[in-house]
Amino acid sequence: MHVDHxxxxxxxxxQSSTLAAELPFAWFAFDVLHALDMFDxxxxxxxxxxxRIADLAxxxxxxxxxxxx
Length: 69
Known about the structure:
By secondary structure, this protein is an all-alpha fold. The protein has one domain (1-10, 23-69). 32% of the residues lie in helices and 0% in strands. It contains 2 helices and no strands. The longest helix has 12 residues, at 40-51. The model has no long low-confidence stretch (mean pLDDT 76).
């Protein structure tokens, strides 16, 4: 079974961290998607997410947090 995880973040410029990740990961800009070694369907989903950044960020900014049970 193969599962891809795509995460989208709107953030200030990346700052280095002294903590090592448990699993390898990296953040990539839209303009390098074509050069990454990934499945075509994963690349298509990543492009879709990048195309919706403004909508997703606006939604997050206006959403009310869900209270903890």
